[in-house]
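Structural prep section.
Before we set up the soaks we want a predicted structure of the protein with nickel (II) ion in place, mainly to decide which crystallisation condition to try first. Input record follows.
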Amino acid sequence: MAIRIIRTGEDPILREISKPVKEINKGIEKLLDDMAETMYDADGIGLAAVQIGVPKRVIVMDVGNGLIELINPEILERHGTQTAVEGCLSLPGIRGEVTRAQRVVVRGLNRKGETVTIDATDLLARCVQHEVDHLDGILFTDYLRPDQIQREKELQR
Ligand code: NI
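Run finished without errors. Recording the tokens verbatim:
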């Protein structure tokens, strides 16, 4: 396993549309391992492969209940709304309130190639939506007006 560099800010790769994984091989297993290690090292709760420079549809998350790995995740259902302050490892020092679905049903593959369906609520639902957005080149700040984007210096005032 290895800690990888997290792409940040205006890095154009963050705007790429990630490609579906066709075959789960050793390379994908290594990618998943590196993503988890990088996420934990950065104290994050979610990471998309594109954030470490690999535009493949792979995400990892841990909101406190253990590691979840999803390959080719697809959000099948969205229910309700929730609004909370959000950040992103690729946008250090930036926060903002984002409204997202309160509950989502997401389906993907685990590292064994088995189909996994997760019924996620609250923080995990938020995380799923944030990470799947990364796979489509979307950052949370895209949902905000410039005056809704909080920078760390302002937060510390
Ligand atoms: Ni992010």
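Observations: The pocket of nickel (II) ion is lined by residues 88-90, 130, 134 (CB under 6 Å).
Flagged for discussion at group meeting.
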